[in-house]
Structure formats: structure tokens, C-alpha cells
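Appendix B, example 12.
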Amino acid sequence: MGNYLEGTYKTPDGKVTGEPSTASGSAHSTATDTSSSTATHAGNNSQSTSSSTAKAPSNAAATTTSASATPASGGEIMRAHALVGALGLGAALNARRFQTSALPFELPSVAHRIVSSPLKYLSQQLYALQLFVRGAPLLLPAKRERIHVLCISDTHCLKPEQLPIADLLIHAGDLTNAGTADEIQDQVDWLKSLDYKYKIVIAGNHDSYFDPRSRGEQDKYRQINWGDGQQKILYLQHSSIELDFNQHGRTLTVFGAPQIPACGGPEFAFQYPRGQDAWSGTVPADTDILVTHTPPKYHLDLPRGMGCEWLLEEVWRVRPRLHVFGHVHCGHGQEGAFWDDAQKAFERLGARNERGPLVDLVGLRGWLDAARLLVSSTLGLIWSRVWGGTSNNTLMVNAALMTGSTGRLGNNKAEYVPNLAAQVCVERGSQLHE
């Protein structure tokens, strides 16, 4: 895998090691004696602020991103107009609709997605439709006790006032904006005040305190008070914990890891070069719940794929019951993973370069994958809905509460998973308020 974090690396036996934690209440050995600078955060989400109570501001003001897409030039816009006219879609369409966003985590317009690659766009819609018709990815025995899991992420210093009752609360990172010790402690104190049997937290790229490379000098010797007893927060960083649910007669193993493909400057935490393998062999095979900050590529992700392809391969290997993540705000929602040929075809189509409709029309390999997606989706529907077949499936949850780059918790439904053992009969939790 190679080193993706100074002092944190994969050993020959496949384990990720790092600086030991000195923070009180940490569930496992993790690097927590860190902080962030108050420089402007770029890439995903927002411009950082040193205030622990400030809302996550729009990343329209971000200025230091190294991953921002360059707006289309005048020549590119003219070529887009000519191509649209040639396809009979009408040159009267505003060419600005075909520009990608200058912000790397913004969702492109439907028009841009169609013109960039109509085959990829249609395959995404087909895949979403078959997942909807196929239903929940897991089946629950009628008398099986349920474990209720509440999934949240990307609160960015904000505190939703209402959350539904659950046995387990998971926060998948980006608690803060600037990632200072004060901001993080404020969020941790809020989480400690919530009444849940277990509360698990991982870091996100904005939580700079936890990464030795991005900690600020002012926080070098600061520690986080994680609480104790019923208030205790379990912080996971390349580590697992086994949770005992005595009332249900079951245990669950949860593994958490914060690393993400690079999307910003040195003030962002746990970054590794995009395309580098920071995941293979790092997730224990007995993991029931996987918590990461980045999504697996192409799943509850941006259409062009801002998630990690190596994480996707690792999830294919482990196939946990539940995978919780955030990071890409506009990917908020839930999705079943059935680990079948339809999913393989969808992911191959997602990896295609977006080179316009003419290339799509003559690209034989793309059409073969589209045919495989259609046939495999049909067979999967017959297997699950007609024959009642089951397999080792996964529920994926992008639990980001922040709406795009608005600085508001507009994704106003927490992801509530009431049946983690089997059929995940998804219910929506109480509406969240700022």
C-alpha cells in the first residue's frame, strides 16, 4: 500500500499502525494529539473558521483547494454548443449548463452529465431503478431482535436538536470546520450529552486535530475529554471494537478508519494521493459495521467518482452488513450493495472517461457493460423478488447532514437503520433542526 500518512503505514502483515493515542477515553490506540491550522479549508464543504460555534460556511469562498476543477473555457463552451446542435438537442441551450462546477464536491447539472456521457448517465439511472425495485439488501427473520443504529456525518460544528432513539449512534467524521481542539471538544461534549448506549466517532478531513501532519502548534499538547461511563465516546482510527448488546443477545464488531483521497491542502487530515492504495487488507474480515469518511467510489458519490476505488475493492472483499460514511454531501442517502454482476457492470461504466456522446455511440465495450447491467439486474430481480433468494449483502449509508456547500444541515433526515442483523427496513428519523 505504501505510506499515506507520516507515522501511519501498513505493516507486512496487513495492519495499519500509527502514533499511539494519548486522548482520554479513546477506544483503541490512535493518533489524537493533534490539531489543525486556521487556514482556509478547501475542496469538500467549506472555508474553515476558528470559531467552535460557527456554521459551516459555503465553500464558494474556498481559495486553497488543490483539486478544484477549472471552469470551462470559451472554446470548450462553443464546442459544447456545436455538439449539442449536431445531436439535434438545440443550440439554444445555455452552454453554461454544460460546465462542471468550479467546486469539486458540487453535483454537475443533468444536462452536463448527459452531454459528457449519455451512456454513463443512463446506466446510473437504470442501476438506481433496479435497486429501488429490488428493495432492502438484507432479510430479517420475523422474530429476530433488532439493533437500532443511527448514522450521522458532516455536522461541521452544528448540532441537530432532535435525533431518533437508537441503540448505537455513529458519526462518520467532519465534526468541525477548522478542526481545532476547541471545535472538536465542543462537538464531543454535545455527543456526550446524547442518550445512546454506544456512541462511535471517526475523524474526517476537516478534523485536523487528529492527524499529526495537520495539527496546529497551538493544540500540540491538547487532549480531548471523551467522557466516561454512559457518556463515553468511542473513537476509532484504524481500529475495531466489539459491542455487546445483551438485550438482543448479540455482539457487533465495528471498524473505523478516516483516510480519504487527497482533496485539499495540508490543513486537511488523513489524505493520501488519489489513486494510491491505502485500504487493501486493512479491514478485518469479521467486521459487521464499517465506518469510513470517504465513500467507496461510485456509490452515494459524485457521478465522476470522488470516493476511493481501493476502498471499494476492500468492501467487495469484506462485505460488512452496514457501511457508514459521509464526505460527499450531495451523495446523502442509502443504497443496497448486492455484490453481483450488475454491480460490477455499473462500476465499470462509472470508471469510463466522459468523452461525449459520439464516443459513447461507437464504444462497443461500454454497450456490452450496459447490456450486462440490464441482464444482470433483471436476473437479480427475479432471484430476490420471485425466488426469494438471499446472499451476503450490504447496506451503504452516506450519512452527511450538511447540504452541499450551504453551511446548513439541510439533509434534514438522519439515517436510521432499525434492523441491523438482517432485513434493514429503513425508517426515517425525526426531522433535524439547526
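The first strand starts at residue 9 and ends at 10. Residues 1-102, 421-434 have pLDDT under 50 and may be disordered.
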